[in-house]
Specification:
The structure is a single chain. The chain is of the alpha/beta class. The chain has two domains: about 150 residues, Lyase, Ornithine Decarboxylase, Chain A, domain 1, CATH 2.40.37.20; about 260 residues, TIM Barrel. Helices cover about 30% and strands about 25% of the residues. The protein has nine helices and 20 strands. The strands form three sheets. Strands 3, 12, 13, 14, 15, 16, 17, 18, 19 and 20 form a ten-stranded mixed beta sheet that branches. The chain has an eight-stranded parallel beta sheet with strand order 4-11-10-9-8-7-6-5. α6 links the parallel β8 and β9. The chain starts with 9 loop residues before the first strand and ends with a strand.
């Protein structure tokens, strides 16, 4: 990265920071805080540095071995400190979902930003054009899926005097999913429209998001849906035979967080000089729920096929809280809620508990316990018979779906395996 991100001071108006503290994030290590020594207030979302490093390294190694470029989906974390680590490990760029997120990347020193979406609205396109002027070395990418969208984008780029062409991928979709062309004929029309505007747009290849695949028949049926969709993108590519005019290979970009095995199969079958670009985002922290289940299924399918193994990831996020009340038998109320955790795709997963003054050596597994519901600031923990907790016990939960965990926290402490605070990772949602 050409420059370091700029951060304001963090103070006690930030959730998770004790009263009276004020510092730059990088100065946190000088405080010698430990999350289990009552130095920081609970509830508290933590990042485990060792798991984070493992995941970044594992994915970078896999991409290098398979010839895949990695543009991690930065909307998952919106954390420039995380981007820096991913780019230093070899990431090709950072993916975002909109222009405002792209601005965070540009201000943080990212020099290739992949907006995995259509860009619409004159204010958005004006900001994009101004951002490209302000950062001459910034390479911006986006998607197109309709003739109307291409014309809207081109007209605004010309109105706001974009300094160079925007890199564009044609997005493929499927009926009932989200955006994207749904037939080869639609693809031809959008492709032809993009080529009409070489001063504003540079056609660079194809894109699709296979993570929308869902089936009531189970994981294998979902994988089959994802596989059929990826094969549709391949079919579009064969019909269009895209050849960018600058001599660079056409890009074939897909997601990869939920169906990494399906993605790998497709990449192995690509013909011609396609350059695969993977946009997985949730691998960086993984989880104890949604993506952990998907990855287990992908690993199982890969093993059944006798194919090379997928990279293994470790959960890097932990949500710590305290027992604040024991109102009924086998029920504990924890002091976190919807304001603090992801709950859109699965509730937090209880892992273990530690007494009020206990250390890691005294932790007790919470097998059979479950978070059953959440209020804004309360979590209901159901306990199996024979498992008792006390008021002020500390409870560690894993999370499900990292995308909606990060956005609840402006700052997340990065800790080592003894929960010593190494840094404060700032988010920009």
């Amino acid at each position: 990265m050409a420059q370091q991100a700029r951060y304001a001071e963090i103070d006690d108006m930030t959730k998770g920071i004790p009263f009276g503290a004020r510092m730059a994030p990088a100065e946190a290590a000088q405080r010698h805080w430990n999350a289990l020594d009552d130095d920081l207030p609970f509830p508290l979302l933590l990042l485990k540095d060792s798991a984070l490093e493992h995941n970044i390294t594992a994915m970078a190694r896999w991409c290098a071995q398979t010839g895949v470029l990695l543009a991690p989906h930065g909307k998952t974390t919106m954390c420039p400190q995380m981007y820096r680590r991913q780019l230093q490990a070899g990431a090709w760029g950072i993916t975002v979902a909109n222009v405002c997120q792209a601005q965070v990347c540009a201000r943080s020193g990212v020099r290739r930003v992949f907006i995995a979406n259509q860009v619409v609205g004159r204010a958005n396109i004006r900001s994009l054009a101004e951002m490209m002027r302000a950062f001459p070395s910034l390479e911006c990418w986006c998607l197109a899926d309709s003739v109307a969208g291409v014309r809207h984008l081109t007209a605004a780029l010309e109105e706001f005097s974009a300094s160079r062409p925007l890199q564009v991928l044609l997005e493929c979709g499927r009926r009932g999913w989200r955006t994207g062309v749904q037939s080869v004929e639609q693809a031809r029309q959008v492709h032809a429209e993009i080529l009409k505007h070489p001063r504003s747009l540079a056609f660079r290849g194809l894109e699709g998001f296979e993570g929308s695949a869902k089936s009531a028949e189970g994981p294998d049926a979902e994988a089959a849906e994802a596989r059929a969709f990826v094969e549709f993108i391949v079919a579009v590519g064969k019909c269009l035979q895209p050849r960018p005019g600058d001599g660079q290979p056409p890009v074939f970009s897909i997601g990869g967080s939920a169906f990494l095995d399906v993605v790998w199969e497709a990449l192995e079958r690509l013909e011609g000089a396609w350059q695969p670009v993977l946009r997985a985002g949730c691998y960086v922290t993984h989880d104890h729920g949604h993506y952990a289940a998907y990855h287990r299924e992908a690993t199982r399918r890969r093993q059944q096929q006798g194919r090379a193994p997928l990279p293994e990831f470790q959960p890097a996020l932990e949500l710590w809280s305290a027992v604040q009340s024991l109102p009924e038998e086998n029920v504990a109320i924890l002091n976190f809620g919807k304001r603090d955790c992801a709950y859109d795709v699965g509730l937090p997963v209880p892992l273990f508990a530690i007494g009020e003054r206990g250390g890691l050596d005294s932790r007790r597994a919470l097998d059979g316990a479950a978070i059953t519901r959440l209020n804004d600031q309360h979590a209901f923990l159901s306990l199996p018979a024979g498992l008792a907790l006390c008021v002020a016990d500390r409870v560690c939960c894993g999370i499900s779906h990292p995308c909606t965990a990060f956005d609840k926290w402006r700052v997340i402490p990065l800790v080592d395996d003894r929960y010593q605070v190494l840094d404060l990772y700032a988010t920009f949602f």
